[in-house]
Predict the 3D structure of the following.
Amino acid sequence: MKERFLMLGVLLKFWYLWLLVLIAVIYRLFKPTIKGWFGEKTVALYLRNLPPEGYTVLNDVILQTDNGTTQIDHIVVSRYGVFIIETKNYKGWIFGGEKSSQWTQNIYGRKSSFMNPLRQNFAHIKAVEAQLTQYPSLPIIPIAAFSPECELKVKVTSHVVYFHQVPGVIRKYIEKHISNEDVTAIVRILRSADIKSVAVKKEHIGEVAAKKAEFESITAGDKCPKCGGKIVRRQGKTGSFLGCSNYPKCRYTKKLR
């Protein structure tokens, strides 16, 4: 009994060490989610530098689509257009092309693939357009924002920049397309369409995690079962799917859940 009390005393004396271990375990388990959250919060802080009288910022917007829900990190509404921002809090070298289905992250020779953020933004643009059908000529400008801890080696003409450069890109657009009243109406529409339900958000996160796990599982061998080509993510009229990089010679496809 005495030994048990001594052991309990030791554990209580060094409780802060156990707390640090617990924090480290939680961080390791939820590292991608935590990093993504920090990236989005960082960009949100930079967006505060935009004049509030000319720009309205909406963060973490979830919209309903024909294929489920889509989450948009940031939407900026102004008289100069609507800006859709996809945030990537990545390290290492980032390689990719405008029309590539996947981009590559290289950290000291360890490579991993992720979906082209420009394609992600294309889906986001379609979701916003579906909500703003009364504004068919409204410019919607996509921006992919990356952490300054990475080095961008992408070949694109679209806006692919670092976190701190996002406000500068937005302020380069100076041609007015809509009135202040239209800006107010658009913000009201998007806020009304934004799904705030905790249950829906959890479901959306689960769907994203499931698709990512399935994609990583299927592409682990990185080879098409029919011709040996590379398996890549593609975007079709009905949503994302997996297909062979040797298309149209090889038409192997597989649906994502």
